[in-house]
UniProtKB/TrEMBL annotation:
This is Protein Hikeshi. One of its GO terms (cellular component) is nucleus. Transmembrane segments: none annotated. Acts as a specific nuclear import carrier for HSP70 proteins following heat-shock stress: acts by mediating the nucleoporin-dependent translocation of ATP-bound HSP70 proteins into the nucleus. HSP70 proteins import is required to protect cells from heat shock damages. Does not translocate ADP-bound HSP70 proteins into the nucleus.
């Protein structure tokens, strides 16, 4: 089961099931929505090897449904934030909701979730301007940056015997860098947003 959160509005935890593997959340007054958060509730995971492609649908000027792929949620990445404010004038993309005659109201958009094989999700390209952002991707980036910095700094490590005295240079002991690296990693694991406090 999944949920959809419109920032500054109540959580929608009950989607409309429009097919065995397709679900839709209505977004009333979508013109005033900038971001949506799509997340798994944690009660029912995706079946093994499956995930959900997340689509944004809005009515164009003639009332026809325009669908755009925002991204994905999976058991390993159960939530994502999508920016939808810049999508309302974009072009539609291929989508799995085509055969369904979902009612379109001028002021109501929809978030559609299609349950699909993970290998199929990997071959799809979301709309770039949806600017997917999540704690998971931030944590992954931070971890990679930490690793890169530590490996880079460690590549310059020399023993005291190898050091050439140079009064204009300061040296930081490698164990200090390692201690910082381990502390930062520990804090990041406990709370990915600790740096905001």
């Amino acid at each position: 089961r999944g949920g959809c959160l419109l920032l500054w509005r109540l959580v929608q935890a009950v989607p409309q099931q429009v097919a065995e593997d397709k679900f839709v959340f209505d977004l009333p007054d979508y013109e005033n929505i900038n971001h949506v958060v799509v997340f798994m509730l944690g009660t029912i995971p995706f079946p093994e090897g499956m995930g959900g492609s997340v689509y944004f649908c809005y009515p164009d000027q003639s009332g026809m449904a325009v669908w755009q792929l925002l991204g994905f949620v999976t058991n390993e990445k159960p939530s994502a934030i999508f920016k939808i404010s810049g999508l309302k004038s974009g072009k539609g993309s291929q989508h799995p909701f085509g055969a369904m005659n979902l009612p379109q109201t001028p002021t109501v958009a929809q978030i559609g979730i299609s349950v699909e094989l993970l290998e199929n999700l990997a071959q799809q390209t979301p709309v770039a301007s949806a600017a997917v952002s999540s704690v998971d991707s931030f944590t992954e980036f931070t971890q990679k940056m930490l690793d890169n910095f530590y490996n880079f700094a460690s590549s310059f490590a020399v023993t005291q015997a190898q050091m050439t005295p140079n009064p204009s240079e300061a040296f930081i002991p490698a164990n200090v860098v390692l201690k910082w690296y381990e502390n930062f990693q520990r804090r990041l694991t406990q709370n990915p947003l600790f740096w905001k406090t």
